[in-house]
Design goal:
By secondary structure, this protein is α/β, with parallel strands linked by helices. It is built from 13 helices and 9 strands. The strands form 3 sheets. Strands 2-3-6-1-7 form a 5-stranded parallel beta sheet. A two-stranded antiparallel sheet has the order 4-5. It binds adenosine-5'-triphosphate. Keywords: ATP-binding, DNA-binding, Nucleotide-binding, Transcription, Transcription regulation.
Length: about 300
């Protein structure tokens, strides 16, 4: 028998800004031209009451962006973050929408659920594609009607929630495959932002590395080492499949194993790059924008086709 009980906290970042242990959301390092454009987009989107869909690979900083959107809005309620892939299967509806007292054996008091906790604020749903289809329908109804009916309750409760959702999969494809609700997709499509993978905004890599180094050195009370030119080159050449989170972990590790003076390539413990990957990195660097990248792609296709 499952030991799960409804409404247990899964992931809530309501207090994260105040937590001294959390380095999340202290700052957004956005230096690359693509990131700067994104920042402008966010500044325009944030104060509007539109829902937002943040698309990006794992570890790119989608949650941080969502927090930034909440900060830039005038919503006085909480930022509540929930990972849809972590929601309990047995109690998904109660987790999200809450339950009335006595709805389950042992539930003496009622609970607001994640949706209700974000009343007046922002609900951040990470990996929204993992939300079961029946709940997607209920979510849309709650957003559109501005009310939720808790599990076991007779009457709906009014709620005012702004939804910021994130996905690392192509939701349009999920809609075509019948795995994602088409109307919820349309609802989210109004405010869509794409967070590019770290390898596509190379000018962010070193500033982020320095930022993380500074934060971890301070947190661990260690001297702040320099990043040697060779280590800088290694950081810039690596394609970062795990994006900013992988970079953060890599820098943290390097700080711990370095002698405190200078980070060297071996401290970063990066896997050696195959030749084609090195070439790809160089080419990406050569192409300053999407247009040039497309041009290079075409040129290569022509050359390889003989
Ligand atoms: N631009 C940035 N500036 C500073 N820190 C960043 C930036 N982007 C990401 N980070 C940091 O990188 C880590 C990963 O970011 P985050 O958790 O927001 O990624 P995510 O895309 O939501 O990941 P997932 O897809 O796994 O949910 C966090 O510690 C975050 O604070």
């Amino acid at each position: 028998m499952s030991k799960e009980t409804p409404g247990q906290p899964l992931l809530t970042f309501a207090d994260a800004d105040r937590s001294p242990l959390s380095i999340r959301a202290r700052a957004l390092v956005f230096v690359d031209p693509r990131s700067r454009r994104l920042r402008e987009e966010i500044e325009q989107l944030a104060p509007r009451s539109l829902p937002v869909l943040v698309e990006g690979e794992t570890g790119t900083g989608k949650e941080l962006l969502a927090r930034q959107i909440h900060r830039g809005s005038d919503r006085s309620g909480l930022f509540v973050g929930v990972s849809c892939s972590a929601i309990s299967k047995n109690f998904a509806e109660a987790e999200l929408f809450g339950h009335a007292a006595g709805a389950y054996s042992g539930s003496v008091s009622s609970r607001a659920g994640w949706f209700g906790s974000a009343n007046g604020g922002t609900l951040y749903l990470d990996e929204i594609g993992d939300l079961p289809l029946p709940l997607q329908v209920k979510l849309l109804a709650a957003l559109e009607n501005r009310e939720v009916t808790r599990v076991g309750a007779q009457q709906p409760t009014p709620v005012d929630v702004r939804l910021v959702a994130a996905t690392s999969i192509d939701l349009a494809k999920a809609v075509s495959a019948g795995k994602f609700n088409a109307r919820l997709y349309q609802y989210l499509d109004e405010g869509r932002v794409e967070l590019p993978p770290l390898r596509e905004r190379p000018a962010d890599i070193l500033p982020l590395a320095e930022y993380f180094l500074g934060i971890y050195a301070q947190r661990l009370d260690l001297p702040l080492p320099l990043i040697s030119p060779a280590a800088q080159a290694a950081l810039e050449a690596y394609p970062w499949p795990g994006n900013t989170r992988e970079l953060e972990n890599g820098v943290h590790f390097a700080l711990l194993v370095s002698d405190g003076d200078e980070i060297q390539p071996q401290h970063l413990n990066l896997p050696p790059l195959p030749g084609y990957a090195q070439l790809a990195v160089q080419l990406r660097r050569l192409a300053a924008n999407d247009e040039e990248r497309d041009h290079l792609r075409q040129l290569f296709a022509e050359v390889l086709a003989g």
